[in-house]
Amino acid sequence: MQTHLALTLGDPAGIGSEVLLKALADLEIRALCTLTIVGNRRLLEQAYEQLRLRTTEPLADPANLDVFDPVGDVDKRIHWGQGSALTGDLGFRYLNAAIYATIEGKFSGIVTAPIAKNFWHEAGHCYPGQTEVLAEKTNSDRYGMAFIGRSPYTGWTLRTLLATTHIPLADVPQTLTPELMDLKLGLLLESLENDFGVKNARVAIAGLNPHSGENGQLGREEKDWLNDWLDTARKKYPQAQLNGLYPPDTMWVKAGKAWYGKPNFESGADGYLALYHDQGLIPVKLMAFDYAINTTVGLPFIRTSPDHGTAFDIAGQGLANPTSMKEAIRLAAHINRCRLTAEINHQSSDFTKPMVQH
Question: pTM to 2 decimals?
Answer without folding.
Answer: 0.89
